[in-house]
């Protein structure tokens, strides 16, 4: 196996032994913070109680609400002068939370990130364009430092200014990008509008992540640009990107289990789900000193994929994120995930890249409207064809989500675009 870090070659036994010993260290470090010194004392558990991975369950979980309640400094486990960086979560779901790093924390984060990029074939000599926010969002600096660590020629392109992004790609002959999947789809259209075929660019690898997307969207990105796209998963609380990443087999995301412990729990009971079933991902940092987090509830829903990976790495693989414990929509008593809707829409070749789900309540009846952009070549004068398409989409959606949405076909580029994380659902029901 060609690898960046020796830890990629460890077998299960070694990985688990390392996890136990690092967990003890991480716990001892965490107890230097005001929050965990209290929380672990209350739970009556000390690092000496950890003898095997099963003992992890003796540690109470940590929630986003805990982080918020301790905002800004309650989780810090080192003297403040040892901290050199802070990031906050993007706040797509409410009040932000802050995460702090020491110099060593940043170095090990960059190592993890470089490992991900090396795994999918990036090498010194690659020209890497990081199309991500360079502010508090971790996808900017986090991936940037990984790319430099690896030795790529790294372009901190930032977000927005599509024309300039395209010019950078052309001028510097970008070979790899980091890009949010919804923006990748948009960018392909913008390049076509300039009269160029995105497939003729020298791009060969895209790292896509930060927002939920389906395998169908990924395939579409690969097709549009003629490249390989790899799913990148992370969250600010666990540093950011570099937590779990697909290898070249694109069959799930290897979690870097030498740096994290991942558990999948039932979100209601907080008990482990049976092997291979979907639940909430709960993560523990093993190497972070500035702000260790123990059993942090990510609210992301996924599952462990069974069986070994042909790449030889024994780090377990996660399925792509199915949704959040908190983005589930309930409509007429039925639970619906936006991803289910995207999967159906993207299976129609006529459908463009942008859509918007709106939930409304009228006379105590909930309704879902799905506005769907139709590709220009299909948005034709022929009303019968459009009606047939609309009926088809409605039927397929009803079969999938068990309620009948109102489907509205709209022209390409008529829905609001975002250059950050796409906002796909508008729930207007609380307003009434
Ligand atoms: P933030 O901490 O603000 O960067 O947001 C992290 C959240 O973004 C995660 O908890 C996930 O819900 C989502 N996310 C990140 N990467 C992915 C990915 N590859 N697929 C789906 N969702 C993702
Ligand atoms: Zn693999």
Would you write up a description of this structure?
This protein is an alpha/beta fold. It folds into 2 domains: 1-326, Rossmann fold (3-Layer(aba) Sandwich); 329-431, ANL, C-terminal domain (GMP Synthetase, Chain A, domain 3, 2-Layer Sandwich). Helix content is 30%, strand content 25%. The protein has helices at 12-30, 34-43, 64-69, 103-119, 138-150, 162-172, 181-193, 215-225, 338-346, 383-401; strands at 83-88, 98-102, 127-130, 153-155, 176-179, 205-209, 228-235, 240-246, 253-255, 260-265, 279-285, 296-302, 304-305, 317-318, 323-324, 329-331, 334-336, 351-362, 365-374, 406-411, 425-427. The strands form 5 sheets. The protein has a 9-stranded mixed β-sheet, sandwiched between helices. A 4-stranded antiparallel β-sheet has the order 10-11-12-15. The protein has a 4-stranded mixed β-sheet with strand order 20-19-18-21. Helix 10 (383-401) links the parallel strand 19 (365-374) and strand 20 (406-411). Helix 9 packs antiparallel against helix 10. The radius of gyration is 22 Å and the shape is globular. The chain binds adenosine monophosphate (AMP) and zinc ion.
| Count of all domains | 2
Low-pLDDT residue spans: none
Distance between the termini: 58 Å
Please tell me how large the radius of gyration is: 22 Å
- How much of the polypeptide forms β-strand, as a percent range? 25-35%
Strand arrangement in the largest pleated sheet = 4-3-5-6-7-8-9-14-13
Share of helix among residues? 25-40%
Most strands sheet: 9 strands, mixed
Q: Count helical runs.
A: 10
The secondary structure category is alpha/beta
Shape: globular
CATH third-tier fold name of the largest domain: Rossmann fold
Distinct compounds present:
adenosine monophosphate, zinc ion
* Architecture per CATH nomenclature, i.e. the level-2 architecture of the largest domain: 3-Layer(aba) Sandwich
Give the overall average pLDDT.
Answer: 92
Number of strands: 21
CATH superfamily of the largest domain: ANL, N-terminal domain
By CATH reckoning, the class of the largest domain would read Alpha Beta
């Amino acid at each position: 196996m060609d690898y960046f870090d020796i830890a990629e070659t460890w077998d299960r036994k070694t990985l688990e032994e390392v996890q136990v010993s690092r967990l003890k260290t991480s716990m001892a470090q965490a107890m230097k913070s005001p929050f965990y010194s209290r929380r672990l004392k209350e739970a009556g558990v000390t690092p000496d109680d950890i003898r095997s991975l099963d003992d992890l369950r003796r540690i109470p979980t940590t929630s986003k609400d805990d982080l918020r309640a301790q905002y800004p400094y309650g989780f810090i486990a080192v003297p403040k002068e040892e901290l050199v960086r802070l990031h906050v979560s993007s706040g797509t779901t409410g009040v932000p939370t802050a995460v702090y790093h020491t110099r060593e924390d940043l170095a090990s984060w960059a190592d993890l990130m470089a490992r991900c990029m090396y795994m999918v074939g990036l090498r010194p000599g690659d020209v890497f364009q990081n199309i991500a926010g360079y502010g508090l969002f971790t996808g900017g600096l986090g991936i940037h430092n990984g790319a430099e660590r690896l030795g790529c020629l790294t372009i901190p392109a930032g977000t927005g200014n599509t024309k300039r992004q395209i010019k950078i790609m052309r001028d510097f002959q970008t070979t790899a990008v980091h890009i949010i999947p919804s923006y990748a789809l948009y960018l392909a259209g913008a390049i076509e509008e300039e009269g160029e075929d995105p497939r003729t660019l020298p791009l060969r690898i895209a790292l896509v992540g930060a927002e939920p997307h389906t395998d169908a969207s990924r395939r579409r990105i690969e097709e549009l640009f003629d490249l390989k796209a790899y799913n990148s998963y992370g969250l600010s609380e666990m540093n950011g990107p570099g937590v779990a990443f697909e290898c070249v087999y694109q069959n799930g995301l290897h979690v870097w289990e030498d740096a994290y412990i991942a558990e999948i729990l039932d979100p209601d009971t907080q008990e482990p789900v049976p092997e291979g079933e979907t639940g909430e991902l709960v993560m523990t940092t093993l190497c972070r000193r500035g702000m260790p987090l123990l059993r942090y509830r990510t609210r992301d829903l996924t599952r462990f994929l069974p069986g070994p990976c042909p790449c030889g790495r024994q780090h377990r693989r996660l399925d792509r994120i199915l949704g959040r414990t908190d983005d589930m929509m309930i409509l007429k008593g039925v639970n619906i995930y936006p991803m289910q809707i995207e999967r159906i829409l993207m299976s129609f070749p006529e459908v463009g890249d942008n859509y918007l789900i709106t939930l409304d309540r009228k006379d105590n009846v909930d309704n879902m409207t799905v506005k769907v952009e139709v590709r220009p070549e299909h948005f034709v004068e022929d009303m019968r064809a459009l009606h047939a398409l609309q009926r088809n989409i409605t039927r397929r959606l009803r079969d999938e989500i068990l309620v009948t949405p109102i489907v509205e076909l709209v022209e390409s580029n008529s829905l609001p675009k975002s250059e950050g994380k796409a906002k796909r659902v508008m729930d207007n029901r609380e307003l009434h």
